[in-house]
């Protein structure tokens, strides 16, 4: 029998894993919808697949799921406020946010490092989250800048280091 992992210890340990930050966007019933995630990851180059894991309590995810198509906007270090805006429930997250429609219709956020456009393939249950698997249909690097990273429950910038 395996002992249960202490939830507080698990949260503290998971917070030591540095992740990038992205905003998942879509058009739902003619309106833009979006949410911040720290779980975006490339799964496969052939076929081009990626995943992210929205919370099962997310109000945005059902609207994004129903759209079927989405964009993954990888945020730059100077976009922490944008991530905070899309991390909260409710309100007009797109108020005063510059964006344009991608080829698949999903909002591409101005200033993002990279935008991926994708079609939702399927979901897998993942405890208190769901694991969304998407097929990438377009990848567009937009600017050269440092990425926004999430570490120990806060936003950070990557410090320049010597290359090995």
Describe the structure.
This protein has about 160 residues and is mainly β. It has helices at about 5-15, 60-65, 80-85, and strands at about 20, 20-30, 30-35, 40-45, 50, 70-75, 100, 105-110, 115-125, 130-140, 150, 155. The longest helix has 8 residues, at about 5-15.
Secondary structure layout plus pairing:
Layout: H1 7-14, E1 19-20, E2 22-28, E3 31-37, E4 41-44, E5 49-52, H2 60-67, E6 69-74, H3 80-87, E7 99-101, E8 107-109, E9 114-126, E10 129-141, E11 149-151, E12 154-156
Antiparallel strand pairs: 1-11, 2-3, 2-6, 4-5, 5-10, 6-9, 7-8, 9-10, 11-12
Spatial strand arrangement across the major sheet: 3-2-6-9-10-5-4
Largest sheet geometry: 7 strands, antiparallel
Listing every helix as H and every strand as E from the N terminus to the C terminus, the arrangement reads HEEEEEHEHEEEEEE
- Give the strand content: 35-45%
Helix content: 10-25%
Q: What is the count of helical runs? A: 3
Distance between the termini: 44 Å
What radius of gyration results from the CA coordinates?
A: 16 Å
Characterize the quaternary organization of these chains.
single chain
Structural class: mainly beta
- In total, how many beta strands? 12
Unreliable stretches: none
Mean residue pLDDT: 89
The global form is globular
Which descriptors apply to this entry?
12 strands, seven-stranded antiparallel sheet, 3 helices, 164 residues, single chain, mainly beta, three-stranded antiparallel sheet
């Amino acid at each position: 029998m395996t002992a249960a992992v202490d939830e507080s210890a698990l949260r503290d340990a998971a917070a030591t894993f540095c992740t990038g930050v992205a905003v998942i966007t879509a058009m739902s019933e003619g309106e833009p919808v979006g949410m911040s995630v720290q779980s975006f990851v490339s799964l496969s180059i052939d076929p081009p697949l990626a995943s992210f894991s929205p919370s099962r309590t997310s109000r945005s995810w059902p609207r994004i799921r129903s759209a079927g198509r989405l964009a993954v906007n990888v945020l730059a270090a100077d976009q922490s406020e944008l991530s905070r805006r899309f991390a909260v429930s409710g309100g007009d997250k797109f108020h005063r946010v510059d964006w344009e429609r991608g080829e698949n219709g999903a909002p591409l956020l101005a200033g993002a490092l990279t935008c991926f456009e994708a079609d939702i393939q399927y979901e897998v249950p993942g405890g208190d989250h769901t694991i969304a698997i998407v097929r990438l249909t377009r990848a567009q690097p937009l600017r050269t800048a440092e990425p926004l990273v999430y570490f120990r429950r806060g936003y950070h910038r990557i410090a320049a280091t010597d290359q090995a």
